[in-house]
Design goal:
about 290 residues; mainly beta; 8-stranded mixed sheet; 1 helix; about 35% strand
């Protein structure tokens, strides 16, 4: 993989979009900033996304999370709220277990929740904030349905973890990573042995000076066999390998990494050549 810090290059707008500013406004949170600049392409993040999120949460519009039986047409309410509920993700192995989110600026909400869809029971908060300016989000399921993974920062932009919650045992694992290795999105391989990340430019929440890379991560659990106590978080670290230099990518389009089913490729999207394409990079090192 390429090494070192690449030279700076101008941002390249997508076809049909307005010219991009050389220095976009500083973001106020993950994928968001409050300004008057509108979205210029449907795949890009709008500069005023943060403002929109604040206004939507503050509006306290009544909302109901519900299911519909396709066979009978019967609907069933699960959760009623005046919070902003969205981002619904079924467990890949249990169709009656649903993850959903209380949306908003991440430091304003306890975001990640689980609920049973058969009877609406066990409405469970996955991660409870414990400090000011703490954020948790961009959650995703492990392929085996055992764990929910999410980006965790205590506080925002300072200390970075990829954290997990086991839906059966309640066990928690927090893998630490460096500022330059933080990624807008993470993902995990089918056998749960590897992670990938899409990095971020200096305008993202981590303010990483050299974070514009597609990453491969190998997790290492810390040996804490002598620790005494119950319900403790298991610590670890992610060992990073840089796969793709993304310095020519405009991160207003989030790359959104994932593994191919055979785990041989990390798949992502990029506008590094102007238009948006889907790319794959090999996980194995060249011999």
């Amino acid at each position: 993989p390429p090494q070192g810090t690449p030279p700076p290059v101008p941002l390249v707008p997508l076809p049909g979009s307005a010219p991009l500013a050389a220095e976009p406004p500083a973001r106020e949170g993950p994928g968001a900033a409050a300004s008057g600049v509108a979205q210029t392409h449907p795949l890009e993040q709008a500069y005023n996304k943060g403002q929109m999120m604040r206004e939507r949460l503050a509006s306290r519009i009544p909302i109901v999370l519900f299911t519909v039986d396709f066979a009978t047409g019967q609907s069933k309410p699960l959760v009623a709220s005046t919070d902003w509920i969205n981002h619904l993700l079924f467990s890949p192995t249990d169709p009656k277990l649903l993850m959903y989110c209380h949306e908003g600026m991440w430091w304003q909400v306890d975001r990640i929740w689980l609920v049973r869809t058969d009877d609406g029971s066990r409405n469970t908060l996955v991660h409870k904030r414990i400090m000011g300016d703490e954020i948790a989000g961009h959650e995703f399921w492990a392929p085996d349905g055992r764990n929910v993974w999410y980006d965790l920062q205590l506080p925002i932009g300072q200390v970075f973890y990829l954290a997990s919650y086991n839906v059966s045992s309640g066990e928690r694992v927090w893998y630490n990573l460096q500022r330059n290795e933080w990624s807008i999105h993470f993902n995990v391989s089918r056998d749960n042995t590897l992670f990938c990340g899409d990095g971020g430019d200096p305008g993202q929440v981590a303010r990483a000076p050299d974070g514009e890379w597609i990453y491969l991560f190998r997790p290492e659990r810390r040996n804490d066999a002598d620790t005494m106590g119950t319900n403790l978080i298991h610590p670890g670290v992610l060992r990073a390998e840089r796969l793709v230099n993304m310095s020519r990518h405009n991160y207003r389009l989030e790359p959104n990494v994932s593994f191919s089913p055979d785990q041989k490729l990390v798949i992502f999207r990029s506008n590094m050549f102007g238009p948006t394409y889907v790319f794959g990079v090999e996980v194995a090192k060249a011999q």
